[in-house]
Amino acid sequence: MVVAVIALLLALAVPGLSSLRNRAGSIRELAALRGLASAWTLYATDQRGWLLPAVYGLPPLNTLPAFHEDGQPIPETVFGTQRGVVARWPHRISRYLDHQIQPLAVSSEAWQVDTCSEGDLMKRLYFTSLYPAFGMNGMWVGGDQERYGFMPETVGGRPNPFRNFYASRLGSVRHPERLVVFASSRTNQDACASGSVREGYFRLESPQWLGPQWASAYDPLLATSFGNLSARWSGQASVANANGSVELVPVDELRDMRRWADQADARDWRFKPN
């Protein structure tokens, strides 16, 4: 009877403890996200309103300044390629986080960065640029060179329909209270560790582009099913908006393209190049 009572008490207590851990983790992540949102705003202020590019500096573009924990520029001896590490947003925003990239890995993705780095600083610089806790909505906010960002004004003598379709200046954002800049992310990429899905990735993809990019339902085992968005907080994602606010949002609510593209005027809006 004593054993049965203990088993019953444990059965009642374990779900409660799990819920408390989940809530504590989400609170910790929202605090880190709030700091990131503040750093993002400071960057724009320092750059006279120009927003932080998500990916910028791959050939033929010139690189932008990027720094690591001691405040020094990313060295040429970094693991991978210097251009690749510098092009991604984490080390370019680090100066506005007091050069502390570690707060961007606040959940299980911190383990991934540690495992991949193997105690090597040059590897850590690479993997912290690849696996921050939060992905950036760079296609629509700030621009992503690998997602049609920073293209020439004209192509073949004609206006380029993909030129500057994204928000590039802080003062031009019309709906900062709903525009997603960063959100909790995940990936299936197998850069250094085995397993199906790992938390943390630098890039998010929107539900729509020229057509649908998300699956009909969130797949816990397939990061691309919801554009690398992670529902790691009981079906919710942590989100930072362009006005600096942070929130937990059920991932199905983030199907609304008005959360992703400032010019979107409908939930299922798609980009139509002129």
Structure notes:
The chain is 26% helix and 10% strand. The chain has helices at residues 2-46, 82-87, 109-117, 121-130, and strands at 134-136, 154-155, 158-159, 180-184, 186-187, 198-199, 236-241, 246-250. A hairpin with a 4-residue loop joins strand 7 (236-241) and strand 8 (246-250). Helix 3 (109-117) runs antiparallel to helix 4 (121-130). The protein starts with a helix and ends in a 24-residue tail after the last strand. The relative contact order is 0.14. The mean pLDDT is 89.
Short characterization:
The protein has 274 residues and is α+β, with helices and mostly antiparallel strands.
Give me the secondary-structure topology.
Blueprint: H1 2-46, H2 82-87, H3 109-117, H4 121-130, E1 134-136, E2 154-155, E3 158-159, E4 180-184, E5 186-187, E6 198-199, E7 236-241, E8 246-250
Antiparallel strand pairs: 1-4, 2-3, 4-7, 5-6, 7-8
Helix pairs in contact: 3-4
Which stretches of 5+ consecutive residues score pLDDT under 50?
Answer: none
The rough form would be described as globular
> Can you give the mean pLDDT?
89
Beta-strand content estimate: 5-15%
SS summary, helix count: 4
- Number of E strands: 8
Please state the structural category: alpha+beta
Rg on CA atoms, Å: 20 Å
Outline the biggest β-sheet. Answer: 4 strands, antiparallel
Fraction of residues in helix: 25-40%
Distance between the termini: 75 Å
What is the N-to-C succession of helices and strands? Answer: HHHHEEEEEEEE
Order of strands, widest sheet: 1-4-7-8
